[in-house]
Amino acid sequence: MKQLISVLAASVALAAPAAAQTYAVTNGRVVTNTDAGILENATVIVRDGDIVAVGAGAEIPEDATVIDASGNWVTPGVFAAFSQLGLIEVALEGSTTDDSAGESPFSVALDVADGFNPAGTYLATNRMEGVTRAAIFPSTGHNIFAGQGALVDTSGDAGSLFQAGSFVFADLSESGAGRAGGSRPAAWAFLEAALADARGYPGRFSGDHEGDALNRYDAAALLPVARGRVPLVMAVNRAADIRRAIRFKADNAPIQLILVGAAEGWMVAEELADADIPVIVDPLEDLPSSFDSLGASLQNAARLQDAGVDVAYSTAPTADGYFNARLVPQHAGNAVANGVPWDEAFRAITLTPAEIYGVGDRYGALAPGYAGDVVVWDGDPLEVMSAPVAVLIDGEPTALESRQTQLRDRYINITDDTPFAYRR
Amino acid sequence: MTLKPSLPALAACTAAIALAACSSGSDTASSGSAGSAGSNSGESGDIVRINLDPYPSTYTPRPSGTTLIRGATVLDGIGGQIENGDVLIENGRIAAVGTGLEAPDGATVIDGAGRYVTPGIIDIHSHLGAYPSPGVSAHSDGNEATEPVTAEVWVEHSVWPQDPGFEHALAGGVTTLHVLPGSANLFGGRGITLRNVPGRTVQEMKFPGAPYTLKMACGENPSRVYGNRGRSPATDMGNMAGYRASWIEASNYRDSWHEYWEAAENGEDVDPPTQDLELDTLMGVLEGEILVQQHCYRADQMAQIMDMAEEFGYQVTTFHHAVEAYKIPDLLAEHNVCAAVWADWGGFKMEAYDTVRENLAMTHANGACAMIHSDDANGIQRLNQEIAKALADGRRAGLDISEAEAWAWASSRPAQALGIGDETGSLQEGYRADVVLWSGNPFSTYTRADQVWIDGALSYDRRNSDLQPVRDFMLGQPGEGEQ
């Protein structure tokens, strides 16, 4: 027997975790991110956590709970490609942050999986705005290596972190040069030495011997990168540094490289495409904020994508990645305003990040076999005035409530006689 | 048919500015009891006066053509919306706003069909020029963080007019901006209101007649900066004690000048007080000539500041950041204080923890004066999108606010809070022709500023690189001419 419920009711009534069940998101404008393109008046069927059918003629199972998306957009959840969700609660309060450890003797060995807090309040505020998956990054401490990143969902459940050791993050930009001792040559020398340490692990660490750049724990953590099993995500901005990174990849096969930042990426777009290196950029980074990014341009994303580079979008550096990763649809919309076709811009915040991290067959599209991360929006998701009216993660509707909405609801009626602290 | 301003809270905001005795449109130097001119003023004889305008504006508007924008959707910045509307610009001023306007001889006529016309955006909180791009150490000129009370510094003396950030803000429709010192100090120094025009000197950018402002900061920043150095203020209570001690000193200083002037004008042979740059600024606040722009996040702290203003008899014009303004709209309205806020940023420190996306809309709808601000060289480029988000979030919370009403958050409200509300910030006859023609509805992500006029001069054109200013710094750099 079918239940017909409104979208809003679905998000509230079904907020409590329930046994896996079947949902039919009906009559929406469905952005599939597949060859099927955008389907009008189509239905998405989710069963036991996964998408099982998508199409205008998809049959609605008898036991399905129907979420009517008439007049709404239905999309895969947003995948924040470069975030720090669940790692920082109050940035200036060091006791509440687990993104970096400048005082630690370790670097590559630091694993964000050990710091991720699924109860962090920004999981909910980001989920409410359509972010369902995120790559979470450590911040650099005492050398160019920040540590190991992970992939999470934003459900806030105990199992939110669904993949650890997803990548290693290193800073080879101007700031990395500073951390390496004061110059770009120092940063690259450290990177090359660290790779040699990793390749020599464990042999060269016999007895009391340590590596040239890394201690044994860090070297062990870098070994999967040296062997090409785990990607190295590298921050670079200047065109010359990007060329250096391209050469680094060529010289160190089978290493996998992903660039982030790439403010001057458009200046070397063809070379990046030829080298098959994906890039994570902030489409709003247009200021020469340092001598590292004097070529920053609002056209960066469009030029890179025109050249055939795989591009994902981030909110950083113009917005943070722990509180406002949720703004990435706005950044994508501005990429459209600056020349990126809508479909490509939307992929850059959904499917492309998933592909970059090697999970593009599970996340980022609406097709059978994909996880049931489905967002119903009250309009074009790249429009700043649009917002989700339902967010499903792994096939379950989630609550569109947060600490911020609780505060809003407490104070919106300023003349209520009930004292504020008694309003819940 | 224009909907004339029907914004009750707008009136409250105007009243706040009236209380602050701002002198927009007039020459700041000649207003107020502290008098004008230097020591050689003939009229004043040998009576020593304080020169209130030693670095006068040399801004000269570029020549204004006669321009008629026809058939656009016009948002007038004070709550009015005209469909198929026309805006006529003549001699640097708004000559007419309406429908079916005739094009004067020689007028440039622009087809605005499908596009929007608004007043230029005004950012009440910017650090452009003082923290310019590139952000190198030599250009870190926004915080004189050497003493907690530095009311003697003037941020105009830090503004580097070659900051490329100015031209990016222009591409976002910003025609006027208020540059402030940073928030490390209790009294950070004087702010300055600028036209967003290129200049070799900051004097060429200064908004003529705009009142000076004073940056004050409460909360974590001053107590962290000085507490970490083992000195006062190290706490919130230390902050309050620091302000109050300064206001007592400033009150005495003001009294000593008034006593001197009174005696001197009576022909007595008296010596003037020793001039003190720090106390000159604070006296300007007590005299109602300098507008207080107060960095403050938490509701309880804003309440303390408003009580302190009453204690010493001055007016706070605007709380900046004010992430908890939504908790006290009644108090803000009662004290005629505005709130300048972000749409949706927070979490970066404890006093920003209670950010809600509905802050701007709730504060406005609950009767206080509210507006957007950027505090950011990137954010200033998209303040139209910021008010769009604030509006959308407010509407989802059930608040009935029109786009026309919301545009005031980016134009007339900040103009009023800067004391220039009868010069710019709205499309009214006789106002400065600070106008943006948008490619579509500016509440859309996809809309860009097509053309921007400042005092009637076409100062930016998205499709004409000859009308896109490039600061000296960018010449020969890879990003030269990049938008």
From TrEMBL, chain B:
Q: Which PROSITE patterns does this chain map to?
A: PROKAR_LIPOPROTEIN (PS51257)
User: Among its keywords, does the record have Signal?
Assistant: yes
Q: Which residues does the annotated region (Disordered) include? A: 30-52
Parts of the chain that traverse the membrane: none
Record flagged with keyword Signal: yes
Instruction: Extract the Gene3D superfamilies matched here.
Output: Metal-dependent hydrolases (3.20.20.140), Urease, subunit C, domain 1 (2.30.40.10)
Fetch the PANTHER family from UniProt. Answer: ALPHA-D-RIBOSE 1-METHYLPHOSPHONATE 5-TRIPHOSPHATE DIPHOSPHATASE (PTHR43135)
Q: What is this protein called?
A: Amidohydrolase
Organism, by scientific name, is Maricaulis virginensis
